[in-house]
Specification:
The complex is a heterodimer of chains A (about 300) and B (about 140). Helices cover about 30% and strands about 30% of the residues of chain A. Chain A is of the alpha/beta class and about 300 residues long. Chain A has 2 domains: about 220 residues, Rossmann fold; about 80 residues, Alpha-Beta Plaits (2-Layer Sandwich). In chain A, β1 and β2 form a beta hairpin. The radius of gyration of chain A is 22 Å and the shape is elongated. Chain B folds into 2 domains: about 60 residues, Winged helix-like DNA-binding domain superfamily/Winged helix DNA-binding domain (Arc Repressor Mutant, subunit A, Orthogonal Bundle); about 45 residues, no CATH class. A 3-stranded antiparallel beta sheet of chain B has the order 1-3-2. The chains are: A alpha/beta (about 300), B mainly alpha (about 140). At the A-B interface, α6, α7 and β14 of A face α2 and α3 of B.
Chain lengths: ~300, ~140
């Protein structure tokens, strides 16, 4: 298999305008087969637009994309059957029972596995005879997940699956995602705002900001590349020169707290020219990493990229 | 895994999850709560117990194996082993140096005097020794 076959999602210059406004702009995204890939960004940053284009539900304005090696403009039913897609709305036919929802859905999928369906239903403690319309939001999410997982998809795409779920239902969903990684050739691509879910399950992360991708790498390298730097001065801190990769500055009396991407000897040298008493770096929690990265500064000069999976 | 030893991880920490796992295993070995031949859960089992990505646990185990603290035996499980000497004495000292700098720096920033810091280190070591004795 060539390296390209090992990509379950591959886009080049993928762009979609809504009127004069870009929803997704020049997206180059490579998702390797196997593992859990998280897709992050603020509301309206273009995540759902990307997902809908990938599934052939929305026509791109320009650019190319392949999913499971198939051009998204020519998706066949066979390819679609190998992709599981869970939307944030969790829509089901309310008049059907849980069991009937499964029976109905199974008609469309040759690879339907009822054991998986029953397993997920059970994991979410759903009664097979319960009417779908009487389920709570978390239970409905469990039902939809069961319907999505039972066809044993190669690629599972979840668009903000934990939105509005209570902590117990959310945990069940994360557990189901981890259970799915038992098969090394299965890939999960999910968008989320829950940083602790992300920290628990993701191997890779891509970050969209205002329609543009600003990071795409292993979750650990994203984290390791962002450092907190405390710079202590004798008196009032001086004005900072332009520091490459600077995300955020906080003043606290005579010290500055900086968050920097790719902090290195050059950055330290630059800070030393300000004659500080002390410079001290420390790691940052994932939530602060993301908030500072998506913060208002909006600089685009330090995109973290290089999918190490290919090297 | 001995019942007295439980790994716990938390999200939102500045310490990545894989490092929380390695830190806890190292500490448990140092205090004697884990001893040679004790078994750890498999990567898959620990991942499902902690609800984290199995690759995270695998990375933690790989680090511990590289340090000579654990060994994965094919088809049998993961065990604590007699710690091999991985580094020469000189190299070990070189690696200890930045850790001591960090400790001393933090302690001075918290206004500890050199004597207070010395006492704190001695007390901690004694405490570990005692835990080890009572575990044995």
């Amino acid at each position: 298999m060539s390296a390209k076959d090992e990509l379950v999602i591959h886009t080049r210059g993928l762009t979609r305008y809504f009127g004069a406004t870009p929803g997704v702009y020049e997206l180059n995204l490579d998702v390797p087969r196997g593992g859990v890939f998280a897709f992050l960004g603020r509301n309206g940053s273009g995540k759902s637009t990307t997902i809908r284009m990938l599934l052939g539900l929305l026509e791109p304005t320009r650019g190319e994309a392949e999913i499971l090696g198939c051009n998204i403009r020519r998706l066949t039913p066979e390819i679609r059957a190998r992709i599981g897609y869970l939307t944030e709305e969790h829509q089901v036919y309310g008049w059907m029972s849980v069991r009937q929802c499964g029976e109905f859905q199974s008609q469309f999928y040759p690879r339907w596995n009822d054991k998986i369906f029953r397993g997920v239903i059970d994991h979410f403690s759903l009664k097979p005879d319960a009417r779908a319309k009487n389920l709570s939001r978390g239970e409905r999410a469990g039902l939809c997940l069961a319907l999505t997982l039972a066809p044993d998809p190669e690629l599972l795409i979840l668009d903000d699956p934990t939105l509005g779920l209570d902590p117990v239902a959310r945990r069940s969903l994360v557990e189901s995602m981890i259970a799915l990684t038992r098969r090394a050739d299965r890939t999960i691509f999910f968008s989320t705002h829950q940083i602790d879910d992300l920290e628990r399950v993701a191997d890779y992360v891509a970050v969209l900001d205002k329609s543009v991708m600003r990071a795409c790498c292993r979750l650990e390298s994203f984290r390791e590349n962002i450092r907190q730097v405390r710079v202590q001065f004798a008196g009032k801190p001086p004005e900072l020169p332009t520091i490459p990769g600077l995300l955020q500055v906080m003043r606290n009396g005579t010290s500055l707290r900086l968050l920097c991407v790719r902090y290195n000897d050059d950055t330290e040298h630059l800070l030393r020219t300000l004659k500080p008493l002390e410079i001290e770096t420390s790691p940052v929690n994932l939530s602060d990493c993301l908030v500072s990265y998506l913060g208002a500064r909006g600089e685009k000069s330090f995109i973290l990229s290089e999918m190490e999976a290919h090297s | 895994m001995p019942s007295s030893f439980n790994i716990e991880v938390s999200t939102g920490s500045s310490t990545p999850i894989y490092k929380q796992i390695t830190d806890q295993v190292r500490m448990a070995v140092a205090s004697g709560r884990l001893s040679v031949a004790d078994q750890l859960p498999s990567v898959r089992a620990l991942a499902e117990e902690l609800v984290v990505n199995p690759n995270t646990v695998a990375r933690a185990y790989a680090d511990l194996a590289r340090e000579g603290i654990i060994e994965a035996r094919q088809g049998r499980g993961v065990f604590i082993i007699q710690k091999r000497k991985v580094f020469s004495r000189a190299e070990a000292r070189r690696r200890l140096e930045p850790l001591m700098d960090a400790l001393i720096g933090e302690a001075f920033a918290l206004d500890f005097t050199p004597d207070e810091l010395k006492d704190a280190v001695v007390n901690k070591l004694e405490q570990l020794q005692n835990e080890k004795k009572s575990a044995a």
